UniProtKB/TrEMBL annotation:
One of its GO terms (biological process) is proteolysis. The chain crosses the membrane at residues 6-39, 136-159, 171-192. PANTHER family: PROTEASE HTPX, PROTEASE HTPX HOMOLOG. It comes from the Bacteria. One of its GO terms (cellular component) is plasma membrane. It is an enzyme of class 3 (hydrolase). The gene is htpX. This is Protease HtpX homolog. The active site is at E127. NCBIfam families: PRK02391.1. Zn(2+) binds at H126, H130, E201.
Length: 285
């Protein structure tokens, strides 16, 4: 994860070099893009709940779910997040929020119908690990490079269409270079961000398994949810696909090896393999 962040930082330096070639309205566009990114991070919990049509529940409304999260938060020595439930048959869970003090953990009704108590606790421990690791903040920072590169590509393209430096013969090569650099940076940063996302999922699996001391419960939940995804109507899976980065298990997965480069989650086999190793380590300890 550190190596991935270092590479993203180097890309950021390259991007700053491209930005330094222009100013004025261009920088205004960059500031607007960063503002949108900040808003996405700041309101991530509300946006995620709204997208899944989830509602926050109190301890009186759902004492069992709150009791599980209370117990896990006490074990992890962390603030208790808000608790929400989404009434959908899609078996999944997610965590969002800009900090542990402003976080929310949401589970779907479909997940609760399918999992036993120990499996449910394993999934919740995974989501609480995302909160403790501040993964929403980490992924937002990591995506800055890609967002800026995408903005630069669009701004330079439209500027070349409607005038500006493109009217100057000497400016045309500069604009072409800026667009090329921004496009390459965008593509590479996208791959690195997805790689970082997969590492974060493995880190949450590990932390969650160690927290409960039951890696087998998390393995069981992963296997069960992944298998049941195939029974969910494709229309519902496609509707939920844009929120894969939040989910415990992605709504849609591509079996092709090349698609793994663009996946937000590691392959199921890799997650299960790691949990098997953790189980052996805990057994020795």
């Amino acid at each position: 994860m550190v190596a991935t962040m270092v590479l993203l930082a180097l890309l950021y330096v390259v991007l700053v070099g491209a930005i330094s070639l222009f100013s004025g309205i261009w920088l205004l566009g960059i500031l607007i893009g960063l503002g949108a990114l900040w808003a996405q991070w700041y309101f991530s919990d509300r946006l995620a709940l709204s997208a899944m049509r989830a509602r926050e529940v109190s301890p009186a409304e759902d004492p069992q779910l709150h009791a599980m999260i209370d117990r896990l938060c006490a074990l992890a020595d962390m603030p208790k997040p808000k608790v929400a439930v989404a009434d959908t048959d899609l078996p999944n869970a997610f965590a969002a929020g800009r900090s542990p003090d402003r976080a929310v953990v949401c589970v779907t009704s479909g997940l609760r119908r399918r999992l036993e108590e120990r499996e449910m606790e394993a999934v919740l421990s995974h989501e609480l690990s995302h909160v403790a690791h501040r993964d929403v903040l980490v992924m937002t920072i990591a995506s800055v490079v890609g967002v800026l590169a995408g903005l630069i590509t669009r701004i330079v393209f439209y500027s070349s269409l409607f005038g500006g430096r493109s009217r100057d013969n000497n400016g045309a090569p500069v604009i072409l270079i800026i667009m090329l650099v921004a496009a390459v940076v965008y593509f590479v940063s996208f791959l690195l961000t997805r790689l970082l996302s997969r590492y974060r999922e493995l880190a949450a699996d590990r932390a969650g398994a160690v927290l409960t001391g039951q890696p087998s419960a998390l393995s069981s939940a992963l296997t069960k949810i992944s298998g049941d995804m195939a029974r969910i109507p494709t229309k519902d899976l496609r509707a939920a696909e844009p929120y894969n980065a939040f989910f415990f298990v992605p709504a849609l997965t591509n079996k092709m090896d090349i698609a793994a480069l663009f996946a937000s989650h590691p392959k199921l086999e890799k997650r299960l393999e790691q949990l098997d190793k953790i189980s052996v380590q805990l057994g020795r300890e």
